[in-house]
Amino acid sequence: MGKVVMYSSVSVDGFIADENDQPGPLFDWLTSGDVALDDSGILKVSRASYEYTRAYWDQIGVTVVGRHVFDMTDGWDGKPPAGVEHVVVVTHRPAPDGWDPSTPFSFVDGVEAAVAKAQELAGERVVEVAAGDVGGQVLAAGLVDEVRMDVVPVIFGTGKRYFGSVAAQHLLQDPITIQGTRVLHLRYELRPSSVVE
Questions:
Q1: Distance of CA 96 to the CA centre of its chain
Q2: The domain containing residue 144 runs over which residues?
Q3: For the domain that residue 114 is a member of, what is the CATH number?
Q4: Domain count along the chain
Q5: C-alpha span between 151 and 121 (Å, rounded)
Q6: What is the pLDDT along the chain (197 residues), one digit of tens a residue?
Q7: Does the global pTM surpass 0.90?
């Protein structure tokens, strides 16, 4: 099975959105360079960010998100974002009324079941877990292999926390760092038995 990676852009003080679920400048780095990151013509980043991000994005097979993110994005109109093949939505509710069951989305109750379904679908590819409450639950369940953060030079003060409501201390390996334009990419492997009692 592929790795389970918790990922998001994040403020210096650890938030993935403000109190109103708005990302503010967290994604500005995706338009701050001159190297096209995808075929949209919109996303352009520095060469360093391109090499780091494109290599990672190309490994992702499935993304796991919470129902809140799914609802906020209107389910991406049934098309998984950024070339991802499938999205697993952690939810206690069924798919929305009128949702086309042939779309590459699965609705699963509980993070353990969601990660298992995502790994089954992804095979050897990466399972990406969106940071926030669901990501924090997956981390707390001991199912995250790696944490990736695109740290943006902004301070929010309050908002939606990268690790959700994780209460336990977790030890990470030393970071791998890549400096981009308006972003610092950090990658941490989790240490075996990373939870500190």
A1: 23
A2: 4-94+103-196
A3: 3.40.430.10
A4: 1
A5: 29
A6: 889 999 999 999 999 999 999 999 999 999 999 999 998 889 999 999 999 999 999 999 999 999 999 999 999 999 998 779 999 999 999 999 999 999 999 999 999 999 999 999 999 999 999 999 999 999 999 999 999 999 999 999 999 999 998 888 889 999 999 999 999 999 999 987 666 55
A7: yes
